[in-house]
Amino acid sequence: PTTLGVMGGGQLGRMFVQAAQIMGYFTVVLDPDVISPAGLVSHHHIQTDYLDPQGLVQLMQRCAAITTEFENVPAGALVTLGAARPTAPSADAVAIAQDRIQEKAHLARSGVPVAPYAVIESAADLAAVADDLLPGILKTARLGYDGKGQVRVGTRAELAAAWKALKGVPCVLEKMLPLAAECSVIVARGWNGECVHFAPQRNLHRQGILAVTQAYEENMPLALSQQAVEAAKNIANELHYVGVLCVEFFVLTEGSPERASLGALVVNEMAPRPHNSGHYTLDACDLSQFDLQVRTLAGLPLVQPRQHSAAVMLNLLGDLWVNGVTPRWNAVLALPGVHLHLYGKLQANKGRKMGHLTVTAASAAQANATALQAASLLGVEAF
Ligand code: ATP
Ligand code: MG
Ligand code: MG
């Protein structure tokens, strides 16, 4: 059988491996950790650093094609892999997504604006920041996720202090926008440029971490939804992207001056991989985002996925395992339409994504009602 490889051993790699195995592929995971969610379920695990030449050679020798599951995999490793094997997404696309400064420039070409921002790489940049970018969010250009590497600043003094606290690394200061909602669009684009998509899902973040995703048609006005899908496809096309790509959007508050000047939709950022907000596709769609990742990588036909159930996804963070006590799975699993996914992580740290739970139902109202019951049983904040 053909073997597919993945850089990274997290939960996204695990779900990729599982989707690949269903279609008969062998899988290899490269991850430095002895035990990782994907390494645990893969046929083979190469335990080296991402840039270790021996690890990369092994991966290339074993695999017909290679993908990645997290955006901070060194782009240099993907360059090496891409020279020998079909590697998707490409090092170029990943490098852009890894750097907010480059990313913003690309996103601005999608047909939907980005939040007003300034690049801060020097004291002079800091001094030149326009007053109307405050209050804002200072974000490190690299290596941020789940709201890490971000500081909210109200004044120039706070901005200066925050940049200093971030050790003066290259940053982007974004104007704080009034958000009515957040959503994301997941697209899958093949080697031949063919592109399919999931409808936008609505995302609720808490402390910068995705908490809840609601996926059903009533989520968004059709015109906005179409605009978001078109923008996501434009971004994928402009990057000549191959694989699964997620684009996050803000929907601005009606009647706000920002909405008057920017429009209803603002593009936030992209992730060059399947995304937490697309986990519901495993249970609510006839093809999941991971099925599409396998298909794009293996050069198999892409078809437009169809969502067959309304869905609400709750993230299960380490906070739920307070004092080592296991959450009440029995009570939750007694509810209709509950799909429990746990990633096999041994250590339940605060804020760590341990698993997720998707509720599928015939209607949005039912999915929300059951998800609220599940949240209450687990001690997850209501939404
Ligand atoms: P991810 O884990 O999604 O990669 P991240 O750390 O890269 O997250 P962002 O997506 O940039 O972070 O921001 C995290 C959250 O902070 C957003 O989902 C949104 O709720 C809020 N946020 C970010 N930028 C802005 C903004 N300009 N105005 C208002 N809220 C914002
Ligand atoms: Mg991000
Ligand atoms: Mg984000």
Automatic annotation (TrEMBL):
SUPFAM superfamilies to which the protein is assigned, alphabetical: Glutathione synthetase ATP-binding domain-like (SSF56059), PreATP-grasp domain (SSF52440), Rudiment single hybrid motif (SSF51246)
Residues covered by the ATP-grasp domain: 104-298
Pfam family, one: PurK_C
Pathway: Purine metabolism; IMP biosynthesis via de novo pathway; 5-amino-1-(5-phospho-D-ribosyl)imidazole-4-carboxylate from 5-amino-1-(5-phospho-D-ribosyl)imidazole (N5-CAIR route): step 1/2
Subunit structure: Homodimer.
Name of protein: N5-carboxyaminoimidazole ribonucleotide synthase
An individual GO BP term: 'de novo' IMP biosynthetic process
Leading EC class: ligase
Gene Ontology CC, one term: cytosol
Keyword ATP-binding part of the UniProt annotation: yes
Record's function text: Catalyzes the ATP-dependent conversion of 5-aminoimidazole ribonucleotide (AIR) and HCO(3)(-) to N5-carboxyaminoimidazole ribonucleotide (N5-CAIR).
HAMAP family assigned: PurK
Entry EC number(s): 6.3.4.18
Highest taxon above the source species: Bacteria
Family: Belongs to the PurK/PurT family.
PROSITE patterns in the cross-refs: ATP_GRASP
Organism: Rhodoferax antarcticus ANT.BR
Lineage, opening ranks: Bacteria, Pseudomonadati, Pseudomonadota, Betaproteobacteria, Burkholderiales
Chain sites annotated for binding ATP: 100, 139, 144-150, 174-177, 182, 205, 268-269
Classification via PANTHER family: PHOSPHORIBOSYLAMINOIMIDAZOLE CARBOXYLASE, PURINE BIOSYNTHESIS PROTEIN 6/7, PUR6/7
Gene Ontology MF: a single term: ATP binding
Catalytic reactions on record: 5-amino-1-(5-phospho-beta-D-ribosyl)imidazole + hydrogencarbonate + ATP = 5-carboxyamino-1-(5-phospho-D-ribosyl)imidazole + ADP + phosphate + 2 H(+)
Keywords: ATP-binding, Ligase, Lyase, Nucleotide-binding, Purine biosynthesis
